[in-house]
Design brief:
Oligomer: heterodimer
Structural class of chain A: alpha/beta
CATH class of chain A: Alpha Beta
Largest sheet of chain A: 6 strands, mixed
Distance between the termini of chain B: 35 Å
Radius of gyration of chain A: 18 Å
Shape of chain B: elongated
Low-confidence stretches of chain B: 383-390
CATH superfamily of chain A: P-loop containing nucleotide triphosphate hydrolases
Mean pLDDT of chain A: 87
Chain lengths: 239, 837
């Protein structure tokens, strides 16, 4: 019972992920336990291959773990069907990918509108428009991804992640494909929007400077949590 | 370098079976169609050769519609001394009557010893022996079914009664093919004499069969007889020419089947091009790496060319084996109208030809995408964007090479078809259709860009998929469109023919013909019909004749040989004389006679088409041979005839009095209520046993059945090209698989359910199907119209239902094939896909 009370927005128990690759079983995540309270900004850090991106993907229900459970706002997600997971993501989760993953045949505005349309929002277009203005791309809303720079694409992707005003925002190396200056712009945007929307933010990065923005830093190595520390700084403060 | 190419080709094939499954099936299907038809034709030829003597039941046959003259009889009698056996067969249409009903039958009277070759089969077997003893007949089972009779019952034919001694099971020389007036009844010549059916002017075919001793050559006898009877009305043929109609029919049928099979191969070729292109697009990185480590363009080209050829060869061989397998299906489809047993035997020629055509098609269609490989630059490795297709023209050598390949392929196709004209036309039409479809596909891609991007995500995404780079729109539209075109055109033509002969009959058209009414029965017959309420029934005199001379020039061989419509010179003309212009006839030139005026030559009116083919005009003279007597006439008018009105129509009409004294019969036409048919026929047969009643409906049904059977076979072959189209469609969609998975997983990541993703696919497939359906249907209409107008000469029937099916069916089919080949994408997990990118 006690567990239920202290359980956060994100509650992970005994989570393991093993893949069979070339006939050999590889352990990606090994017995992970993690609770993230509401509105916390957590950075997950670790060297490449430590399993941090997989962990983030599993939180979003984009793959099925080998064992263990994940609860989002008290709802167990590991036994949900593909479609239930999709609806869950639509309602609760915004996701920012390292390589943007915008749909190339849709304009910036249409890309941002997709989650709203899927949720049946009748004001999808105007909301998408407003979000694009908020990320500073209002004037380029009719451009296709191929016509935008990497930084611009990632800002569209951030706008899309916030479209349904999700409780949980997951960002996987959002600056990994960007140069330093552009990366900083994007991260500032992400933090500002997160503060405005009051959502829980989980950021995966291998960049210590970026992680320094977070309230809490979870460090992964070889699929295990090796440290989990709260930062001294005020939540979401900019250095 | 050679071995490197071979080794590398094998490695690449090993790793990419998914692509090449479609490639393989595409070629195999087309080759299967061609080899299937080729083997069928070869087996058919062999069967006809093998059974040629039984197909005629003799070595030499003399066929005429007239009794032999005394001198001709003498010539044939003289043959007896040379060991040549002969017999006389008569074939005619007659009525069989029992107390409860009547039935039109095809009567055949034979003499003891029939047949010289082949086997006559009856059930029970002993019934054969009774044929020449007493009034016994053998009858086909359908007669017994229609009149509700049993073996042993009696029926009346003409003025004689006959006992049905048994069922006629097989008759070696029955004219095969097509159309028949009714079930066969076989009797002896004595039996036929007893019926008294043969009267002057009766429609009878006399066949005099000759059996030659081993030493006598049929050709020599044929030459001898032809010299004895220079008269065109006597046809002398040897067994090698038996069943000319059947041969011609089969030759044309296999030609059309072969051409339809060729379409399957061409559609398959489109699939090959798209498979090769898709494969190479995925290989761009490999190619760039190979170039970066020092491989020349030529070497790389050789790698993939070797691979393509190997696969093409394998596919062709598999297809050829499949084509042999088709022999299980084709003969049963035609069984009911083939008089011969088909035994399957392997024939090398169709096999080799099919494989060669498969290989040529493979190279022709793979050449362009392969040549583009030369333009891949090594720096491509540094770019992640591999969706971009290599650009640059394939160059002049490509044009020359594909020109040569296309020529070689066309040559093989012509060889397969056996007719330069038909095959040339066909290939021209096919190339035109492919070109039009290609153009239409380009238009569709452009149009899709301009269509409104409506809100629903499914619509927007589905639409966008049509015009993005690397979309398979062209491939899909062309291959599916061709398939739709063929199968729908066949259907439209068939419906058109059936409509023309069946439904396009005026409501006041007669429903019955009474034939062979003798002149002395004319009045009594008209009275009988009038008594039964058919005062409107018309009796028209018929005189059977042959064309003898045009403008004083006797008809010679040069008139009809080597001429497409030589038939107009040699056919039998049924003449009549009339006072008034018949209904539905319009005089287009000259004047109809209004009063009998004394003139030196009798006046005659000619049908428009006959006048054109025979070169007749107002003032020309025509001379006819009526059973030896010559009657000539002066053309005074040219008429247009409504042939479809199902009345008695004539090419030549004389003025009254011109044909007096010629042997003639009368034909009566009447419109009879279905309820009244049976009692009326019975009354007629009782009073006039020699008169035959022909129901138009039965005749049309019989024709419709023939059309139906032929179109069934052709549709079977066309089904292969539809199948090829579906394979190409699936292959083309598979080529976009990576992109589809990627986008589907993004949609999933932002919250799309499987249903929502399936909807975006469905919209895309529906749009593709609609475009292919509309274009294919349009081309089908053009093709069917062309065939109807120029080849079959039938009127055009607008068939909105069929057209709606063409479009609707294509949409449904495309959605089905599309979803079937992509549904597995829906179940994928987003994370592994999106992380790999």
């Amino acid at each position: 019972m006690l567990l239920c009370i202290i359980e956060g927005v994100i509650a992970i128990r005994n989570l393991s992920m093993r893949l069979t690759s070339g006939g050999r079983e590889v352990s990606i995540l090994d017995d992970i336990a993690l609770d993230v309270p509401a509105k916390q900004f957590v950075a997950i850090v670790g060297p490449s291959g430590s399993g941090k991106s997989t962990l983030l993907g599993l939180i979003a229900g984009m793959d099925t773990p080998t064992s263990g459970t994940i609860s989002l706002e008290g709802q167990e997600i590991t036994n949900l069907s593909e479609d239930e997971l999709a609806r869950l993501r639509r309602r609760k989760i915004g996701y920012v990918f390292q390589s943007f993953h915008l749909i190339p045949t849709l304009t910036a505005q249409e890309n941002v509108a997709v989650p709203l349309e899927l949720a049946g929002d009748s004001e999808a277009e105007s909301k998408a428009n407003a979000l694009l203005w908020a990320v500073g791309l209002g004037s380029r809303r009719h451009h296709y991804p191929a016509q935008l720079s990497g930084g611009e694409q990632q800002r569209v992707s951030v706008a899309r992640a916030f479209a349904n005003n999700p409780a949980i925002l997951l960002a996987d190396e959002p600056t990994g494909n960007l140069d330093t200056a552009t990366g900083k712009q994007v991260i500032d945007l992400l933090i500002r929007l997160n503060r405005d929307h009051g959502s829980t933010l989980v950021l995966v990065t291998h960049d210590p400077a970026l992680a320094a923005h977070a309230e809490r830093i979870v460090c992964l190595r070889d699929g295990r949590i090796i440290s989990d520390e709260l930062q001294q700084r005020a939540p979401g403060a900019l250095p | 370098m050679r071995t490197f190419a071979l080794r590398m080709a094998w490695r690449e094939t090993r790793a990419a079976w998914r692509h090449f499954t479609y490639f393989f099936i595409c070629i195999a299907l087309g080759v299967a169609a061609l080899v299937g038809v080729g083997l069928f034709a070869a087996n058919m030829d062999r069967a006809i050769q093998r059974e040629a003597r039984s197909l005629m039941a003799a070595d030499v046959e003399l066929r005429t519609t007239r009794p032999l003259t005394a001198e001709a009889e003498a010539v044939l009698r003289g043959f007896g001394g040379r060991g040549i056996a002969r017999m006389h067969l008569s074939e005619l249409v007659a009525m069989a009557a029992v107390r409860t009903g009547t039935q039109l039958v095809e009567l055949k009277a034979v003499e003891p010893g029939y047949p010289f070759y082949g086997k006559l089969r009856a059930e029970p077997e002993q019934a054969l022996a009774t044929l020449f003893a007493g009034n016994n007949v053998l009858a086909e089972e359908t007669l017994l079914i229609r009149l509700d009779l049993n073996v042993g019952d009696t029926l009346k034919i003409g003025r004689a009664e006959f006992r049905i001694a048994g069922l006629l099971k097989k008759e070696p020389d029955r004219a095969a093919g097509a159309f028949s007036f009714g079930p066969r009844v076989l009797m002896s010549q004595q039996g036929l004499a007893a019926t008294q059916l043969i009267q002057p002017g009766s429609r009878v075919t006399h066949r005099h069969l000759l059996k030659l001793p081993e030493a006598v050559s049929p050709r020599a006898v044929q030459a001898e007889l032809s010299a004895t009877f220079p008269d065109k009305t006597v046809r002398v043929s040897t067994y090698q020419e038996a069943q000319p109609m059947l041969r011609r029919f089969l030759r044309q049928l296999t030609m059309y089947l072969g051409l339809v099979g060729l379409i399957a191969l061409m559609v398959g070729g489109i699939g090959v091009a798209s498979s090769v292109r898709a494969f190479l697009n995925e290989k761009l990185e490999t190619i760039a790496v190979l170039k970066a480590v020092g491989a020349e363009s030529r070497t790389i080209l050789l790698v993939y060319l070797t691979q393509t050829l190997l696969l093409g060869l394998l596919g062709s061989l598999a297809g050829a084996a499949l084509g042999a397998g088709l022999q299980i299906f084709l003969p049963p489809l035609m069984k009911t109208w083939l008089p011969i047993e088909l035994k399957f035997r392997f024939a090398l020629l169709p096999f080799v030809r099919g494989v060669a055509m498969g290989l040529l098609t493979t190279i022709l269609f793979a050449l362009w995408p392969l040549l583009e490989v030369r333009h891949v630059r090594p720096n491509l490795i540094f770019r992640r964007d591999v969706t971009e297709e290599p650009s640059g023209s394939a160059g002049r050598s490509a044009w020359i090479a594909s020109g040569l390949l296309a020529l070689a392929l066309a040559g093989l196709a012509l060889w397969q078809a056996g007719s330069w004209r038909a095959a040339g036309l066909f290939i021209g039409a096919l190339i035109a259709a492919l070109g039009l479809l290609q153009g239409a596909a380009w238009m569709v891609a452009r149009l899709a860009r301009r269509l409104p991007r409506w809100k629903p995500l499914a619509w927007r995404q589905g639409l966008a998929n049509l015009y993005r780079p690397g979309s398979q729109v062209k491939t899909i539209l062309v291959s599916v469109g061709v398939g739709v075109m063929v199968i729908l055109a066949i259907h439209l033509v068939e419906r058109n023919i059936l409509w023309e002969i069946g439904e396009n009959i005026p409501t006041d058209a007669p429903s019955f013909f009474f034939i062979d009414i003798q002149p002395d029965q004319q009045d009594a017959f008209a009275r009988l019909l009038a008594e039964r309420g058919h005062a409107e029934a018309r009796l028209t005199p018929l005189v059977r004749s042959r064309l003898w001379a045009l403008n004083g020039q006797p008809i010679g061989r040069e008139n009809y040989e080597e001429r497409e419509h030589g038939w107009y010179f040699t056919r039998e003309y049924v003449l009549t004389f009339l006072k008034d212009l018949p209904k539905d006839n319009v005089v287009t030139k000259g004047d109809w006679w209004n009063a009998v005026e004394p003139s030196r030559a009798p006046r005659v009116s000619v049908e428009e088409e006959a006048a054109r083919r025979l070169g007749l005009d107002i003032g020309s003279t025509v001379e006819f041979d009526i059973q030896g007597a010559k009657v000539s006439g002066k053309v005074v008018s040219i008429r247009k005839v409504e042939w479809g009105n199902m009345s008695t129509n004539f090419y030549f009409i004389f003025e009254p009095g011109a044909l007096d004294g010629a042997p003639m019969t009368y034909v009566a036409t009447a419109r009879i209520d279905p309820k009244e048919e049976v009692p009326l026929q019975r009354t007629v047969i009782a009073a006039f046993p020699n008169v035959s009643a022909i129901s138009i409906r039965d005749v049309l049904d019989s024709v419709a059945r023939v059309v139906d059977r032929i179109s069934l076979v052709i549709r079977f072959m066309a089904g292969l090209s539809i199948l090829a189209g579906a394979i190409v469609l699936a292959g083309a969609l598979a080529a976009t698989r990576f992109r589809r998975i990627y986008e589907a997983m993004i949609l999933k990541a932002v919250g799309a359910t499987r249903r929502a993703i399936a909807q975006t696919f469905a919209v895309e497939y529906a749009l593709l199907g609609a475009a292919a359906g509309v274009i294919g249907t349009g081309l089908a209409v053009a093709l069917a119209w062309g065939v109807g107008h120029w080849i079959l000469d039938v009127k055009w029937l607008f068939q909105p239902e069929a057209l709606a099916w063409g479009v609707g069916g294509t949409i449904i089919g495309t959605i089905l094939v599309g979803l079937l080949s992509t549904y597995r994408i829906l179940g994928q997990k987003p994370l592994p896909v999106l992380r790999r990118e």
